[in-house]
User: Fold this.
Amino acid sequence: MVKAQHRERKQSTRLHPENPHQGRYDFDRLCQLYADLRPYVSVNRFGSQTIDFHDPEAVKALNKALLIQSYGISFWDIPPGYLCPPIPGRADYIHHLSDLLASNNAGVVPRGRKIKGLDIGVGANCIYPIIGCRTYGWQFVGTDIDPVAVDTANLIAAANPTLKGQIQCRLQADSGNIFRGVIHPADRFDFTICNPPFHSSAQEAEAGSLRKLRNLGKSTETVKLNFGGQSNELWCDGGELAFLKRMVAQSRAFSQQCYLFSALVSKHEHIIQLKRTLKNAGARQVMVVNMSQGMKVSRLLAWTFLSDSEQLSWRELHWSDK
Assistant:
């Protein structure tokens, strides 16, 4: 993976070079591809076309257009109130993850159906598997504790010929478990990905949304989270840090079934505690990649329990074209 046990990359100030969502959106082109986006497009005070990013329906329409434009997705829809994530940031995670895989593969990104990822908390939107499948040809298993999210994600995967046979979503019946119950004995995953719940309670999530609206000078009479989201998508007991500590602890039991574990970390101050938790869990290597999208900064935390020789054997068995 990397020779040093812990490595942190230089802070990024822009999207990954391979990310297709660089610069401003071409709304004229996007509206040509998806006409239903047009009613949400307006001209701001700087004379540029934009949408109201605090309107879930506007964000949903933009996502549909972007998925058509960049990933050839003909059908994509989510139930009202479910998380509608910003696609450029999701794509950045996938591209930075591909760099980590390439760093231990002579600089070559492993591609194709032989590479399999596990998306913890896939959500109804199924965004990470879509991007990974369409960009690198990877297969995915997505998991979620919400049956509606699982059914919706499976519907998206089945309805698009470009995704056929490459994405399968499984219901996690026990919300206390992250891996157990959804990783089967015969499964082998080259990586896991996860965008954990950020807030520690519904009240904290609501307060965060109120602050954003006030900063934008918008009415706060009715709190409307700009990207939607069910409770399990937005918060959990103890928030992000508690979830990730639990994820680290539970990942140890699947150390031989997953080459690389990873998750997003929103708060920089959590990294030191998580590195300590990973060391205590016996992780052989830990990596932190800083990412940013506009004013939002996050970190990709990745770890493996495999020794150098075990990693080599894995790559020869699962990644080699021979």
